[in-house]
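Example for tutorial group B:
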């Protein structure tokens, strides 16, 4: 595109600063990138956020890394003694260290790390990070999956077989344009995914109902039909309490539950296991389960391999108790759904009021809205994930959603079609077929390590204690470990103990400062990238775009993808990386789509590959005439998980109180009477962007949000500096009042460390309790037993006025 002036040029593309990937138009004036605007012709181009508008500041910031750097002084020295080196020298040193560590300890002793694909541009290169790991032979990626994406996209796979909420790695997306009711659960799209915010506002105008579940009244909560101000960390109880009302009132899709869940399967009351057909006195097939036919008054078998009962599902019992003749005598059994209903009955409206601080009337109104405004869709974010009970919470939410019968129907959470594309991650490479178990897999075999994702705490254990095996090297792509995770002191000790650490980034961070080699990275506005599908809806999924570089990167900065390809070549793995040719990988990826790289280069705005959305794909028949079902062991939505039982966990997701909360640690409440949660600021992506003046001047300092009543009792005025303390540690921030916040709750912000020279603001020490690092307040040893997720958002705390001057 061209503007009227010959000195002005416009380039269509998309912003990769966060998961929204908003369609954009960049303006260059006299060759300089001067502004970024939304592209209304793009499927995600309705608007862009302040971070996107500040893109030129990011591109031209004086503190950008521009040359590879090598440490010349020990890691204990306050001055690393950085010296500039060539790219050849840097990559040769990294490759040599990786080979040496692999020869001495095995390739799994080299871990990789990457920043969140939801809040950085690493999505441009993430498939190649994984491919290099698979080619080299290490399963260990420190990626923060335990904190971001686990609950919504992975824990729910144990219920539906797929993520009920879409992440960068797939799942179902809410069909907001057709929804009768949308639930935003621990998710504020106005701050996190602006494309969802604009879609929600449009849907509200046509009459869609909106339920927002959040301790704070922010974003779209003020437009909600029902806002549930849940106590932090009790979302699992709330899901069970809503389900209880819906089951008691008959507000659930009986036909869907009977046909597409394992609700009819019988559970033995003596062993608390599913009854199998080969246990019946009358005999039955191996691997089959049993249900009760109420019309015939007898058992019927269910074959999960075929996804079929021996009789139609119309008369299968969901409630009741039945005596079944087995080879060991008569056994009392009840359907799974009956056991689920019994679990939910524990969470009566009165129990929810005590536990979640939500009035019975509000609970009833939410349940009624969910049922009567179907089809229902929902989207959940890290608000419900950053807790030590995140797995069971996510399962409980998924089961509540199953009651609506809305999954994969128009207006529900839909498994969207995708443009055919070749996989780039390299699971078929020779080394990938003999990977060691990822760190943390033995302790938590159903958690992130099952997908070769390693938590920061487990990574530190492998480095510092050699558990389960030693890690000696790390290759990092932007992951600011010391600011993004709890217990930064342990993280610092682990990074310092590594034999070798290489880090690629845009800026020098506290994490990068502990590396042996630091590599300068091009921003998403200075590099080319291919994106196939834009996630939000079927129209967006049909969009394919080869994003152009708007300007050249500063100095010698290079894209993560180029770094990976060159490193692979030096490791002798070039044959798995198209002999170092990135374009060749794009061509292979595009192959199944029948769209060429040349076509995309000729159309910078992107091309569309028409797609057809099919609904209720679980009901489609395969070549044998059997239903496709769900990709779970039973081929049904699983209210009861034998997978969990086999690993020593509960078959159903009972609520567990936060480990450091008023109900579990009353001994701490005298010193720490408040509950601490945290939230994402609107102007920054996690630990980034606070050095950009246009953004920082709108948020000069971190803030602690609290109710004025809570503040008054402590002599705190709006804007005062306060000390925030938990049993684990502390930080400082400025007080900001919120009348809508429960007086027993305070809300912090994480990610603060950067200074802003233009505004005269210095950086802060992320390891000092008088600094601004929220993660010093987190006890990273308090973790979810399945996923290893630390409790970042439901701890006890106290807030006090800082009396000395800063």
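The residue assignment follows.
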């Amino acid at each position: 595109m061209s503007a009227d002036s010959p000195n002005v040029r416009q380039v269509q593309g998309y912003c990769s600063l966060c998961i929204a990937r908003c369609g954009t138009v960049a303006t260059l004036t006299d060759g300089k990138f001067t502004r970024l605007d939304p592209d209304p012709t793009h499927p995600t181009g309705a608007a862009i956020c302040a971070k996107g508008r500040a893109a030129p500041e990011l591109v031209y910031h004086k503190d950008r890394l521009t040359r590879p750097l090598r440490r010349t002084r020990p890691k204990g020295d306050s001055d690393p003694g950085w010296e500039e080196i060539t790219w050849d020298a840097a990559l040769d040193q990294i490759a040599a260290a990786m080979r040496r560590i692999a020869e001495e300890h095995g390739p799994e002793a080299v871990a990789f790390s990457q920043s969140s694909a939801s809040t950085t541009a690493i999505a441009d290169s993430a498939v190649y990070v994984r491919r290099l790991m698979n080619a080299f032979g290490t399963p260990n990626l420190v990626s923060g999956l335990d904190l971001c994406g686990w609950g919504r996209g992975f824990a729910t796979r144990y219920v539906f077989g797929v993520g009920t909420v879409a992440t960068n790695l797939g799942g179902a997306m809410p069909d907001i344009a057709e929804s009768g009711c949308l639930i935003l659960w621990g998710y504020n799209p106005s701050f996190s995914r602006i494309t969802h915010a604009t879609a929600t506002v449009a849907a509200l105008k046509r009459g869609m109902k909106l339920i927002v579940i959040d301790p704070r009244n922010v974003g779209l909560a003020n437009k909600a039909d029902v806002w549930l101000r849940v106590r932090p960390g009790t979302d699992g109880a709330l899901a069970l309490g809503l389900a209880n009302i819906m089951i008691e009132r008959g507000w659930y899709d009986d036909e869907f539950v009977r046909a597409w869940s394992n609700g009819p399967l019988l559970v033995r009351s003596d062993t608390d296991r599913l009854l199998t057909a080969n246990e019946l006195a009358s005999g039955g097939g191996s691997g089959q389960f049993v249900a009760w036919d109420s019309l015939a008054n007898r058992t019927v078998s269910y074959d999960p391999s075929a996804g079929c009962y021996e009789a139609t599902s119309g008369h299968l019992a969901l409630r009741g108790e039945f005596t079944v003749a087995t080879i060991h005598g008569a056994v009392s059994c009840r359907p799974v759904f009956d056991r689920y209903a019994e679990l939910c009955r524990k969470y009566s409206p009165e129990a929810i009021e005590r536990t979640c601080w939500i009035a019975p009337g509000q609970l009833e109104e939410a349940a009624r809205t969910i049922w009567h405004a179907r089809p229902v869709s929902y989207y959940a974010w890290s608000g419900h994930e950053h807790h030590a009970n995140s797995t069971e919470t996510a399962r409980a939410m998924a089961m509540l959603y199953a009651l609506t019968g809305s999954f994969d129907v128009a207006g529900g959470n839909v498994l969207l079609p995708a443009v055919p594309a070749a996989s780039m991650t390299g699971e078929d490479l020779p080394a990938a077929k003999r990977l060691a178990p990822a760190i943390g897999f033995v302790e938590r075999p159903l958690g992130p390590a099952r997908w070769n994702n390693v938590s920061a705490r487990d990574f530190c254990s492998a480095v510092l204690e050699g558990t389960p095996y030693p890690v000696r090297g790390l290759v990092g792509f932007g992951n600011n470990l010391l600011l993004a995770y709890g217990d930064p002191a342990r993280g610092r000790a682990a990074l310092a103990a590594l034999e070798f650490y290489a880090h690629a980034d845009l800026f020098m961070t506290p994490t990068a400062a502990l590396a042996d080699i630091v590599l300068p990275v091009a921003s998403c506005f200075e590099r080319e990238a291919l994106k196939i599908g834009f996630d939000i809806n079927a129209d967006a999924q049909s969009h394919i775009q080869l994003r152009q570089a708007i300007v050249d990167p500063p100095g010698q900065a290079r894209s993560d993808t180029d770094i990976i390809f060159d490193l692979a070549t030096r490791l002798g793995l070039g044959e798995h990386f198209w002999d170092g040719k990135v374009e060749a990988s794009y061509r292979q990826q595009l192959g199944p789509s029948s769209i060429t790289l040349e076509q995309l280069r000729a159309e910078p705005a992107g091309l569309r590959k028409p797609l057809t959305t099919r609904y209720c794909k679980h009901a489609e028949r395969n070549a044998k005439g059997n239903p496709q079902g769900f990709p779970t062991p039973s081929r049904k939505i699983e209210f009861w998980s034998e997978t969990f039982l086999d690993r020593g966990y509960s078959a159903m997701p009972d609520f567990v109180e936060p480990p450091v909360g008023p109900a579990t640690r009353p001994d701490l409440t005298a010193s720490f009477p408040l509950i601490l949660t945290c939230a994402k600021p609107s102007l920054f992506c996690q630990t980034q962007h606070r050095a950009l003046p246009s953004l920082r001047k709108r948020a000069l300092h971190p803030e602690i949000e609290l109710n004025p009543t809570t503040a008054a009792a402590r002599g705190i005025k709006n804007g005062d500096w306060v000390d925030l303390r938990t049993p684990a540690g502390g930080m400082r921030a400025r007080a900001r009042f919120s009348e809508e916040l429960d007086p027993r709750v305070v809300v912090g912000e994480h990610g603060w460390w950067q200074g802003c020279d233009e505004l005269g603001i210095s950086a802060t020490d992320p390891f000092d309790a008088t600094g601004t690092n929220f993660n010093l307040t987190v006890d990273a040893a308090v973790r979810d037993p399945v996923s290893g997720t630390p409790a970042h958002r439901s701890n006890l705390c106290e807030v006090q006025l800082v009396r000395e001057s800063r």
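Residues 87-105 form the longest helix (19 residues). Compare this with the pattern of hydrophobic and polar residues in the output above.
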